[in-house]
Amino acid sequence: MPIGSSRAGSQTQILYESPDLELFAKATNWKAYWSDKLRPYIEGRVIEVGAGIGTSTEHMCCEGHPDWLCLDPDPANVVSLRQRIEDGRLPQFCRAEGGVLADQPEDNLADSVLYIDVLEHIEDDQGEIGVAASHLKRGGHLVVLSPAFNDLYSPFDKAVGHYRRYEKSDVARLTVPGLAVRRVFYLDSAGFLLSLMNRMFLKASMPTTGQIRFWDKIIIPISVYSDKVLGGTLGRTIVMIWQKT
Question: Which residues constitute the domain of residue 161?
Answer without folding.
Answer: 2-244
